[in-house]
Amino acid sequence: MKGYSRRAAAAALAFGVVLTLAACGTTSDNAKTGQATGSAPSNKCGGPSGKYTIGMSQANLSEPYRQRMDDDIKKAAAAVPQFTVNYADAAQDDTKQVGQVQNFLTQKIDLLIISPNEATPLTGAVKQVFDAGIPVLLLDRKVDGDAYTSFIGADNVSIGKQAGEYMASTLLPKGGKIAEIKGLSGSTPAKERSDGFDQGIAGKNIDVVATADGQWLRDQGQAKADAMLKAHPDIQAVYSQNDPMAEGARIAAQNAGLPKLPITGIDGLPVPEGGIKAVEAGRLSATFVYPTGGQEAIDNAKKILIDCQTVPKTQTLPTKLVTKDNAAQVYAELNKG
């Protein structure tokens, strides 16, 4: 990825001085699976009479999904009077996000919520916070290793596999040629959604003739789809790893004289401009609801800081396939209350 090595090097340099503060506890192992399942109660817990500052480090606010994530956190945190949440937008810049996390550490926050821009460049920064005794909740995206308190997000491999199966069973049951628009290469959902998709189309005579990194952004999705459709005018469908890039691909398809080209996305935000309404309107063939985890992050912060409870190491959020048949129903269900 262009500029990746420079950003990674700068990120590593920004956290070259190792902090020597105490670690925040250990994780327990599940005897059946051998996977870490929870964290020890945090030494940051002060009970319901305490006041707590949470740092929220967002990968970017260019994606509607991430704007909604911050909004969900704000709404949930407003119901917990003990919480003050400070927000930072990394604007898709690894080095900037490392610096913002370092600043949160200097501010002596009580808990960090972070959706890393890319995994490897942010791993060191997250570990430094965790090793300083501060609970860390990874939201939606992961880092390398296990130096964090809990990961909260949907199963991206499963979502990708379901997208591949839908492509094979419903859109191209006889096989065919498709294009794949991936997200930011260094982010864990991009790899996992691609790996899962490959599993879903395995043995189904579907040939991925073109791939491109759309960086999760609509304009990039349009530009990449435009180039791919020009190079491969026989493309029969497009798999996009999120809805904004899928909407961009729709514009490219229309410009190429392919207004009915099947296009699938992921996110399924229950807002007028989101993927569910795009499916209902026929712009997208399908999408998958991908919860932001904002409410769950605050629920976990409350358990850690106020209730002095342990939380699972991994918390998998549910998802759902959305097609024109159920789009209106899913939209209504997600907007209850």
Word description of this protein:
This protein has 337 residues and is an alpha/beta fold. It folds into 2 domains: 4-153 and 292-317, Rossmann fold; 156-266, Response regulator (Rossmann fold), CATH 3.40.50.2300. Helices cover 40% and strands 19% of the residues. The strands form 4 sheets. The chain has a 6-stranded parallel sheet with strand order 4-3-5-6-7-13, sandwiched between helices. The chain is elongated and about 60 Å long. The model is unreliable at 1-38 (pLDDT under 50).
Task: Summarize the topology.
Layout (H helix, E strand, L loop, with lengths): L3 H11 L12 E3 L6 E4 L12 E7 L5 H14 L5 E7 L4 H13 L4 E4 L4 H13 L4 E4 L10 E5 L1 H16 L4 E7 L5 H14 L4 E8 L4 H14 L5 E4 L2 H13 L7 E2 L10 H6 L6 E3 L4 H12 L8 E4 L2 E3 L4 H8 L3
Parallel strand pairs: 3-4, 3-5, 5-6, 6-7, 7-13, 8-9, 8-10, 10-11
Antiparallel strand pairs: 1-2, 12-14
Helix pairs in contact: 1-3, 1-4, 2-10, 3-4, 5-6, 7-8
* CATH-assigned fold name of the largest domain: Rossmann fold
Task: Give the CA-based shape.
Answer: elongated
Strand content range:
15-25%
Cα-based radius of gyration, to the nearest Å: 21 Å
Structural domain tally: 2
Structural class: alpha/beta
Number of strands: 14
Q: Which strand order spans the largest sheet, edge to edge or round the barrel?
A: 4-3-5-6-7-13
CATH C-level label of the largest domain: Alpha Beta
Low-confidence stretches: 1-38
Helix percent reads 25-40%
Name the CATH architecture of the largest domain: 3-Layer(aba) Sandwich
Order of helices and strands: HEEEHEHEHEEHEHEHEHEHEHEEH
Beginning-to-end CA distance, first to last residue: 42 Å
- CATH homologous group name of the largest domain: Response regulator
Q: What's the story with the biggest beta sheet?
A: 6 strands, parallel
Number of helical segments with 4 or more residues: 11
Mean pLDDT: 89
